[in-house]
Amino acid sequence: MIIQVGGSISFAPETDGAAAKWLSDDTRHMLAELDPKPDQVTVTVNTSQMNVLEQFDHRDIVGSSMEDPAVFTAYKEMTVPAQPGWVEEHVRRLTAAGIQSAFQCYNVNSFESVERLMRRGIYKGPLVMNWVAIGGGMDSPTVYSLANFMRGVPDGAVVTVESSVLNVLPVNTMGIAMGLHVRCGTEDNLWNQTRTKKMGTAAQIEQLVRISRELSRPIATAKEAREMCKIGVFYDTVEESLQANGFAPTETVVGKAICKRSPDQALVAAFQLIVRAG
Fold this sequence. Notes:
alpha/beta, TIM Barrel, 8 strands, disordered C terminus
């Protein structure tokens, strides 16, 4: 398996009526000191609004703590603190500990910030990312937003799609069809698509496994998943890192040509990944 620790640790309100907030910078840096150490720690990029409830319908919160107006407001007003200096220092500490950074990208802007981190040599490892489409300051769960995001992503990246409530299944289905990876579970959604009954994490996983198989996307074993994410791999130089991930070399970027292929060709390459992976 791959052991991944969420970089937020917990943003739940500590007391009734308290704010939902991320822990301090120093506390989050301590994730690089965990023993035993995880394979990955998620790294947020760029401070952003994180209204996790923007896509919720009132029916989505029935029977949950979100029915309490104070709790609802606490989550609605949440922000993600991820200033550039903190991100750079966090990535350096994780790398020094041999822990892979799993970047949380909320839109094209945060992906481009990650690319610049790599071109400056702050991160020299496999590019593993989540595309976070939960609205409320983050991307919208549409095929247009996903396709636009993927236009700039290099072929060597490992991208997982993420959404919330009833958007989880359609976004994951799009991701599977595009040769990407998926996320599900009761943190993101509690219901089936008709809201006629609750749906646990195991049932959501079984649903995506069935869809993946029907689309000829076999499920990776634990060993294959570790190989795909290149757990434990780091590169010695910036150019080695860029080449391994499929980016154009730095000297090409500063010239007339920004990338080796047009954005449309990059999108086609993302779709072709389905054939190669299947």
